[in-house]
Amino acid sequence: MDGTFIARTFDIDFAKREVVLCSDDAADLGVRTGSRVKVVSKKAASVAIVNTTKKFVKQGEIGLFSKISKELKAEKGDKVAVHPVDRPSSVVFIKKKLAGEKLDAKEIQKVIDDMVSESMSDIEISAWVCALEAGGMTLEEVTSLTTSMALSGDTLELEGNVYDKHSIGGVPGNKITPLIIPIVAACGLKIPKTSSRAITSPSGTADMIELFCNVSFSLAEIKEIVEKTNGCMVWGGAVNLAPCDDMMIQAEFPLDLDPRPLLLASVMSKKKAVGANYCVIDLPVGHQTKLDNLPLGEKLARDFIDLGARIDMQVECALTYGGQPIGRAVGPALEAREALLSVKAGVGPESLIEKSCAIAGMLLEMGGVAPRDRGAAHALEVLMSGKAYAKFQEIIEAQGGNPKIKVEDIPIGRYTFDVKADSRGYVSKVSNSGIKLVARAAGAPRDKGAGVLLAQKVGAKVNAGDVLFTVYAERESKLSNAQVLVNSLNPVKVEGMVLETMNPNNPNIRIK
Amino acid sequence: MDGTFIARTFDIDFAKREVVLCSDDAADLGVRTGSRVKVVSKKAASVAIVNTTKKFVKQGEIGLFSKISKELKAEKGDKVAVHPVDRPSSVVFIKKKLAGEKLDAKEIQKVIDDMVSESMSDIEISAWVCALEAGGMTLEEVTSLTTSMALSGDTLELEGNVYDKHSIGGVPGNKITPLIIPIVAACGLKIPKTSSRAITSPSGTADMIELFCNVSFSLAEIKEIVEKTNGCMVWGGAVNLAPCDDMMIQAEFPLDLDPRPLLLASVMSKKKAVGANYCVIDLPVGHQTKLDNLPLGEKLARDFIDLGARIDMQVECALTYGGQPIGRAVGPALEAREALLSVKAGVGPESLIEKSCAIAGMLLEMGGVAPRDRGAAHALEVLMSGKAYAKFQEIIEAQGGNPKIKVEDIPIGRYTFDVKADSRGYVSKVSNSGIKLVARAAGAPRDKGAGVLLAQKVGAKVNAGDVLFTVYAERESKLSNAQVLVNSLNPVKVEGMVLETMNPNNPNIRIK
Fold first, then answer.
1. Which among B1, B260, B34 is positioned nearest to A450, based on CA atoms?
2. What mean pLDDT is reported for chain B?
3. Is the CATH code 3.90.1150.10 the one for domain A163-239+271-398?
4. Of residues B94, B123, B133, nearest to A98 (C-beta)
């Protein structure tokens, strides 16, 4: 039932805590691929998942990858003892959820504990995500999940009330954070904003902010920045907030799943972990966003509000127009330029200024800075007065950036091409997914200067030959990739008033 | 969108087709852990799943494990091109099933195709298994799944009608194959039996048969053996029948799941792949088997029969008593000895002879060898006449074994201990799971001579000091492991007629 093996170490930094045994030894121990074993060295012990092999390690040997060999402080040739251990009890709870049953708080806590201690395999995390997708969760269960996730990592402790905002994403060019945070912070409310980097989008908020200043800070440093300036704009990935969220995303991504309970718990656990007690959620609604129509958005908004109430957080939701990109710029540097212009002089695109002030205004109303229905106007005043810009500079400086940075200090791609209208008409559509794909093909978010700048948005009247948008790239090869994609996707559509003509012989001909 | 990398090869024979890229290169390609890429060398191309690392490979390098480097015929230093590719469409179908929708035959076929071509990750296979567990399948879907699985590997082609039997397992000591196959084959029916090795049990049928003869043969060899003798008793793992079954088991095992559609399809696809058109399924019913009670067994039996009808296979089911081990021996060598005695002279335990003849008889009735309700009697005649033994010897010889093998030629463990009754009474329980665990602790199935021999079964009257069972082991350390387990599990229970007494002060005292 147990045995002693000679360690062979492999300097491969796989994230998982796995060991490799030869098939005969595994059979002898009564374990197989996917079984758990406790591995004990002279100095430490750890639980790992078994892989079996016929050739990779010999009988009597155990293969240890970097992670586990470090934990065990075991070196090549060391003797380690191996004992089979039972499946973790979280497997029982995953099965229970797959069977459509409700989990209690302790059961959910156990799953999160096992995940955070990195003792769940890919197979088990995938099963958990699928169980939530198939079985759903009551709001009570989501509450337990949110709380467990919030407490699974580090937490930020600030004095007094803490404000926050979050956008569930889906619409490109949504550079509202560098406007909202300075406005709210300038009004004396604490708003410790953490943002993500791009996953599938051409520009995450953290990717853009990085062009102004550092975004990677410890929690202690974040606390100091917020205590000094009332705000921050940092990368959430640098701190250990609700760390199990990332593990679940590792399974959600290949399956293209985003189970509703996880969407809610993912957002709210991170807000809870920074201590927010007032929060606005931005829910972009529109074709090719995460919410196709208003009723879907309203349902999700109610869930966010109800969940907030259960975890002592006052939540308000903004269902926002997401039918085309926000503002005109998509891609880190182009967005940073647009945001800087907007926060500095309020001369950015109307859609950006209006949306930012509306959401900032909701926070100002929640914080008692402005009376109900006066928040957006108050926010706009703060922006136009220059107070928001002064606060922006203060935060940038606190995060190690140059507060005097100008638009022209932010380099953009030197390789560009214009896409022009080939007929007279109106811009009838700017495709969110089309613009995202073109910007990514051009190199965004990794090439910070790559992206798309829209010259026209929906409703604009254009003549043949007018520029519709410009693509920027840092590398010529990327520019041609984007060119190919523009030709096939045609992401900005121009149509005349006659969309189609029909005749009896050829019943459905579309005039471009 | 694509790039060229320098190969670094790692001689590690992981089953999966995975490559390792450094995080920056992955971001540049627009891929992440779990994404798929097409990898093209000068000589070949293959689709693999991405892992990302910060240290293991450097920028510009790609890590290739044995499987993929062999496929690409790529060596260290070779240039390979990498292009992102979309998620396989099977992911869409997995999501559809998770949403509770029905899949059509083409969709199921696509999932099985992707699995067999080894282009699904652990995460995806786990999601598929969970989707079947949560969403279930209609019989129409199970039919498609069974057919796709049957055609996913090799198939056996024999002339005329083909008979088969299968036990879904769960009860230890179920050594009926070496009785049934010779009886049926002796009556002129073709029965190409493939069996499995033990997974969680102390003895798989293939583990036991191996003590008489070889069990690993190619399909061509199996065909030759069956054409010569009408039967065979081989290991299914040596041939490529419904290979995706094993891949799904790799996810079922750690999750402790056995979704009903997969149970049905797993059994029936293998029967279909050997060309069976008549089949008996043995469904052991009883505490600690897979079927707790008769109604559960009846429901499963109906599904097997209906599924059979849809794939042109006449199926009959035997719901069998599974409340305690079949016969007295548990463990490969002990079972082989018991089976040999039984097939040779019909002197084995009644439970084994009766069950074997009943199931063989059903096949004889289906084959028109015996009239309805006379099959079991006919089978017993064939067994007692020595014809079954002659056929057993013929098959053993055809599989390269010694047809004259005697019981004493099969070595059993030299380390033993007896477990004795400590009071007078009746054997009230022989625990299936308790006996399995003790036999495994003693070293079975890897130590072929290890196991348990029951001296008494349920209902036997015993006196204090009578031997209840004997544990056999090949290694002293294993024997002590088993001893510890016997003390804690007490797998054979002896009770007097008074089970409990109660008094007002101590309301529930059990007399042992």
1. B1
2. 92
3. no
4. B133
CATH for A3-85 is: 2.40.40.20
Of B1, B54, B125, the CB nearest to A13: B54
Q: Say yes or no to pLDDT of B54 above 50.
A: yes
Q: Which residues of A touch B130 (CB under 8 A)?
A: 98, 126-127, 130-131, 134
Residue B228: predicted pLDDT: 98
Rounded Cα distance between B380 and B229, Å, is 20
Quick one: average pLDDT of A35-40? 90
Contact B13 A56 (CB under 8 A): yes
Residues A12, B440: C-beta atoms closer than 8 Å: no
When pLDDT is cut at 50, 70 and 90, the band that residue B512 belongs to is very low
What residues of chain A lie within 8 A of the CB of B134, using their CB? Answer: 98-100, 130-131, 134-135
Lowest average pLDDT, out of A92-106, A442-456, A488-502, B100-114, goes to A488-502
* Contact (CB, 8 A) for B439 and B172: yes
Backbone angles phi, psi at B56, to 5 degrees: -60, -45
For A89-136, CATH number? 1.20.970.10
Cβ separation of B126 and A131 shorter than 8 Å?
A: no
Q: Give the pLDDT confidence score for residue A388 in this predicted structure.
A: 97
> Is the Cβ pair B254, A130 closer than 8 Å?
no
Which residues in chain B have Cβ-Cβ distances shorter than 8 Å to A13? 53-56
- The pLDDT assigned to B56 comes to 76
State CA A197 to chain mean position distance: 6
Domain boundaries, chain B: 3-85, 89-136, 163-398, 411-495
pLDDT digits (tens, 9 = 90+) for A460-494: 999 999 999 999 999 999 999 999 999 999 999 99
Whole-model pTM: value is: 0.87
Question: Which of B185, B167, B183 lies closest to B175, judged by CA?
Answer: B167
Neighbours of A457 (CB within 10 A): 18
Residue A512 predicted with pLDDT over 90: no
SS3 B495: strand
Residue A35 CA to residue A25 CA, distance in Å, equals: 13
Restricting to A residues 59-118, those with a Cβ less than 8 Å away from any Cβ of B are 87, 91-92, 94-95, 98-100
Q: Which CATH class is domain B411-495?
A: alpha beta
User: B258 an active-site residue?
Assistant: yes
Q: Does domain B163-398 have CATH number 3.40.1030.10?
A: yes
